[in-house]
């Protein structure tokens, strides 16, 4: 995580080292989230594609993934370590210079999205320790923030996303904001590339993911996780999990093992 007083704090929710596991090939299931992600492999390129569409798999020296509602397959041969970042939807414009909507449903090369960061993987490879890698990434993002800055509509969008995160239905969020559902839905779709309802699904799913990682594989915990995350019941949680993760909640916990306590997908 970024330092409490860092200017990056509103835009970077996660900044951690990752390791996809022992052996010559590391494979990880990338789950939907309410954040965008940047994957910076330490050495070898990372292969990312949608789990249900093998033809979508591409190798990236560094990858940026927009908001998505389908599971991804992340595969890294050779060195399976790197740096993982999660950005808030506002972080895309403020740090990379592109709106979140331009990246929705896609995985792109970091060099194509933010040319100023094209050499970041090579610079990271020359850093021998995690503190130095972290400091390099933070300096690079701060330089991006200085170039682009927070967009003028950021307060409005931040309020909309906060309202959607606090309510189970879009019309309830619109009531909190004092606007029409149509206005809220249109603004969110334009800025994020997903609908307001889809963003609420992502928020619930991300909440369930964190709670499941903490609760473990006990089936008795699933009902509690469902209720605490805003699902109607355990069956609702299970249906959403199959749709957005491509597996059951317990199946994900078993396959990912200790990785579920690490970086977001």
UniProtKB/TrEMBL annotation:
Molecular function as annotated in GO: DNA-binding transcription factor activity; sequence-specific DNA binding
Segments forming domain HTH araC/xylS-type: 154-255
Top-level taxon in the UniProt lineage: Bacteria
Pfam families in alphabetical order: HTH_18
Key word Transcription regulation present: yes
Assigned keywords, A-Z: DNA-binding, Transcription, Transcription regulation
Listed InterPro entries: AraC_XylS_family_regulators (IPR050204), Homeodomain-like_sf (IPR009057), HTH_AraC (IPR018060)
Protein name (Swiss-Prot/TrEMBL): AraC family transcriptional regulator
Lineage: Bacteria, Bacillati, Actinomycetota, Actinomycetes, Kitasatosporales
């Amino acid at each position: 995580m970024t330092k409490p007083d860092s200017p990056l704090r509103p835009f970077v929710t996660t900044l951690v080292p990752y390791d996809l596991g022992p052996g010559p090939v590391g494979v990880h299931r990338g789950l939907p989230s309410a954040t965008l992600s940047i994957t910076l492999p330490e050495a070898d390129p990372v292969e990312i594609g949608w789990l249900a569409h093998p033809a979508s798999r591409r190798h990236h020296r560094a990858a940026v993934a927009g908001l998505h509602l389908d599971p991804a397959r992340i595969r890294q041969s050779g060195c399976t370590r790197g740096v993982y970042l999660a950005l808030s939807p506002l972080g895309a414009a403020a740090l990379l210079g592109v709106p979140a909507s331009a990246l929705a449903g896609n995985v792109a090369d970091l060099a194509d999205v933010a040319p100023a960061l094209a050499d970041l993987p090579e610079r990271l490879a020359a850093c021998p320790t995690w503190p130095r890698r972290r400091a390099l990434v933070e300096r690079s993002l701060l330089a991006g923030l200085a170039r682009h800055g927070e967009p003028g509509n950021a307060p409005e969008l931040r309020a909309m996303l906060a309202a959607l995160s606090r309510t189970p239905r879009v019309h309830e969020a619109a009531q909190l904001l004092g606007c029409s559902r149509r206005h809220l839905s249109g603004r969110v779709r334009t800025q994020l590339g997903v609908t307001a309802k889809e963003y609420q699904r992502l928020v619930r799913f991300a909440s369930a993911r964190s709670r499941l990682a903490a609760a473990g594989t006990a089936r008795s915990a699933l009902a509690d996780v469902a209720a605490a995350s805003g699902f109607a019941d355990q069956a609702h949680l299970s249906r959403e999990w199959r749709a957005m993760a491509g597996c059951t909640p317990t199946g994900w916990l078993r396959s990912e093992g200790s990785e579920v306590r690490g970086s977001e997908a």
